[in-house]
């Protein structure tokens, strides 16, 4: 077991170093898109942990990302803490919100739970308009500054802020995947799978179903909060328009595209979500720059991909093939 963990750690380290080195050989747009992919990986992974392994449905993770984003920005702006601590505060604030929501979620299931989280996604971001400290519709600016000088000196003089965002996002994404991977292999992961597979049998074996569900919701919410803080960093602000209901649906779509029990597939789902807007912009430009196409085509493509995935590969491409092989 220790050798396996050591090997996994070396693989994660090698992937991280490769990605960080790669940022020096691609243009600024690709670097920014890479950072977006890393943020989506974290958000999608939080859904995979919650839905794929504990069996709970959430359509409100965009609101939990908003909690993380606002908490990070407020702590960074008013308390002047380092940005990494601000990200941690954002994750903890979202975890607290997830714990409260999880207390209710433990008594709900199926469409009732989905409806509750959907109401949260609709209502929570709009609360920013009611409090002056949250910046209203304009939101709050968020600038973590340039990279530390020692990093810029070691990587060369041309180390832009987008590259710095990419580094931060990739390190957080790899740490998140590593954390979830080990968590799912632990007693907690086995407990969540038991609760998802057969709640009655799990209860008879001594598992506290309610406590298990609340814990899963809390951990998933903390990861969503971290993704929200990183998204605020990329956008340079935190505002209601950045955490709309569409964001919640987008994350769920990415999780379905990945396969809700396929943690590695979160990368595939994140790449697809980032590629779709670029593809639609190219199509719109080719057709004369139609604003209607730019506005409606991304949603159409996402919906079609979601339907096709549910029909032909509901467990994700890799798991689907594995099942066929076993048969």
Relevant terms:
2 strands, 327 residues, 1% strand, single chain, two-stranded antiparallel ribbon
Could you tell me the mean pLDDT? 87
Give the DSSP E fraction (strand runs of 2 or more residues): under 5%
What is the helix/strand order?
HHHHHEHHHHHEHHHH
| Integer tally of domains | 1
| Biggest sheet: strand arrangement | 1-2
Write a structural description:
Helix 1 packs antiparallel against helix 7 (161-184), helix 2 (28-54) packs antiparallel against helix 10 and helix 4 packs antiparallel against helix 10 (209-235). The chain starts with a helix and ends with a helix. It is built from 14 helices and 2 strands; from the N terminus they run αααααβαααααβαααα. The protein is an all-alpha fold and 327 residues long.
Summarize this, please?
The chain is built from 14 helices and two strands.
Helix-strand layout with pairing:
Blueprint: H1 2-22, H2 28-54, H3 61-78, H4 83-105, H5 110-123, E1 140-141, H6 149-155, H7 161-184, H8 187-197, H9 199-204, H10 209-235, E2 237-238, H11 245-258, H12 265-286, H13 291-312, H14 317-326
Helix pairs in contact: 1-7, 2-7, 2-10, 2-11, 2-12, 3-4, 3-5, 3-10, 4-10, 7-10, 8-10, 11-12, 11-13, 12-13
